[in-house]
Amino acid sequence: MAELDHWHPVLLSHELRRKPRSVRLAGREIVVFRTSSGGLGAFTDRCPHRSMRLSEGWVEGDRLVCAYHGWRWAADGRGDIPATPAARPCARRDDVFDAVERYGAIWVKRAGAQATFPRFDAEGYVPAGVLRHRAAVPFELALDNFIEVEHTPFVHFMLGYSLDQMPQVEAQVTLSDDAVQVVNTGPKRPIPRIVEKMFRIPHDAKFVVEWTARFSPVHAIYDHSFINPRTREVVTYPLRSAVFFNPVGPESSEIYTFLFASLGRWSEFGLGSLIWPPLRVAMDLELRLDMRLLSRLADKRGILKGNVLGRFDKALVASRDRIDRIYRGQAAEATPEAGDGHEATRAARRLPLAAS
């Protein structure tokens, strides 16, 4: 299962204390534990001896102890047996995972896999928290929702554009071998004048939503800005986000959103701590609205055949191909073309869902 060869966030840092925790990723149950010295370990949540859930056990020193017979496992998969001291059991390599702690989360990948840890911080931004949400759809359909702005007038109060402005929104798509980049530019939706003054946003500014999707693992990085139509000056929005899409089961996924703040001149006056919390609360609400919308889909299998695709769906189709090729290591199959509202003419395929 190639999905497990990529780094995925599976727990918030504060959730992993002395007790081992079980998580689910791409249909696999994985136990994650923290050693007494602060190190991390992760295995398939099943003791190689007699299949007890290792998450039912506890940690002694640098080893995870099985609650059934007391067999003890180090993070590298080597074990010892209290009842047979001379024995040297070893877990299967496929059941051992690498684990690291970064950006306020615990990340895992299959041990020995050569995936590079994703980089998504940026100069001038500082980490400002992590949000996690559960989506009642496969992760492919969650990604579909996050990489187009056509739904934003009907779902969001802060993100995206107003309905009457959508015809004016331009979507510039740039494709590379391992990424899909989209820059959406259009009139900003109405926001309170006090907010415009706080962040020096012209009342008639253009709102720019730029995102780049990558596929090892599947995630998208978002930057927002405003453009003064007279001076062409760019006003950076004090929010950057990196959204990771984890497959959980055939009809469920987890969304981890890493938030970064750039408060600019507000930090100079010591007001950064006052400005950022409301933005974080607003982002959490916006994401909850997405989750509620996704739960209402009539068909969660992800079948594209017969769907009518529009001008904002080009990135969606391109991303599917890269999920197959990069994330799953499969040869890409034919997908419908995105057009201007006409039915797809090429052969459609069923979305490959996460293994159960």
Automatic annotation (TrEMBL):
The protein, known as: AmbP
Native organism: Sorangium cellulosum (Polyangium cellulosum)
UniProt keyword list: 2Fe-2S, Iron, Iron-sulfur, Metal-binding, Oxidoreductase
The Rieske domain, residue ranges: 7-108
Superkingdom of the source species: Bacteria
A single GO molecular function term of this UniProt record: metal ion binding
Name of a matching Pfam family: Rieske
PROSITE patterns: RIESKE
